[in-house]
Amino acid sequence: MTREEYCSRIQEAIQAIGFQGEFLDYSRYGSGHINDTFLIRFKESDGHIEKYILQRMNHEIFKKPEELMKNICNVTSFLRDKIEKNSGDVKRETMNVVYTKDGSPYFRDSIGSYWRAYLFIGDAVSFDRVENVKDFYESAVSFGHFQNLLADYDAGSLYETIPDFHNTPVRFETFKTAVAADLLGRAAEVQTEIHFLLERAEEMKVCMDLLKAGELPLRVTHNDTKLNNILIDNSTGKGICVIDLDTVMPGLSIFDYGDSIRFGANTAAEDETDLSKVSLDLNLFEIYTKGFLEGCNGSLTEKEVEMLPMGAKLMTLECGMRFLTDYLQGDTYFRIHREGHNLDRCRTQLKLVEDMEQKWNEMSRITGKYR
């Protein structure tokens, strides 16, 4: 598609969605890699400039955008009711979908692309990396509060926007198939990593077995609990809103917690090649655990709290396994920027798992401390 054609699709979406006022302009916004995101400005009759977020949804990754938007609309509507009852600010504490002029939460343009819009939340910022301990703590409180607000939502009523996203046993079977197929002849050079994962086969199924047994409850989960999916208020420094709800679906609370630890409490970058730099920062682990459980405000069960360290380990193990699977299959899923990039990512995750195992007793002590 040419730039002119793409601009035409943007204008088509702007005209279809129920924005208020006189259109002023739009510009690219944010650093996301999945959807195309724009900041739209409209001038209202009283001279006020209202901002909106417009996104072209990536329906190659999210195959059923209609179901995805139903999830988002239902969850944000539920959140607004809770926030209102708590005397909160419904325009800043949750995302608000802007419907099309004919009442739909999304618009499908003339070439079949899906578009959606949200109210813009101003005077707030998100961070791509943990640069400030307080911000990491605030993200923990926010994701925990998200769990608390949705604790009585019927998670089973949500669609799976990406089926088996955190079904680790299914991911493990896919990995073993990739090893057996060895499409590019890469398996021989990664035998150490393959055996590391195979040796932990029993752990791969622990959490899903507990879910099936009813010992871990099915929850509404975010499934992308990175720091940059929390908006932090510029004036108060407090986390105010959980954003990017594309992967909201049924899941386990310990996985949301665990993915934050995997991403935020690692002393190195996700693709660090010097593995001596990779370890679990126990201080950040404790800070996040404290904030998350404060935000949950007693809504987790005793078993969920007990299993938080396993959530961290399993999400790290699963992520490393996914990177290795993609490497064996020819780097077809994760975008790479150099030869062996997915292998580097895999090794970083597995080294972090190894370090967690060495610090297991301390991790368990910390979670018990804030139970």
UniProtKB/TrEMBL annotation:
InterPro entries hit by this protein: Aminoglycoside_PTrfase (IPR002575), Kinase-like_dom_sf (IPR011009), Prot_kinase_dom (IPR000719), Pseudomonas-type_ThrB (IPR050249)
GO molecular function: ATP binding; protein kinase activity
Pfam family, one: APH
Annotated Protein kinase domain residues: 23-371
PROSITE patterns documented for this protein: PROTEIN_KINASE_DOM
Coiled coil feature spans: none
Protein name according to UniProt: Mucin desulfatase
Lineage, opening ranks: Bacteria, Bacillati, Bacillota, Clostridia, Lachnospirales
Organism whose genome encodes this protein: Anaerocolumna chitinilytica
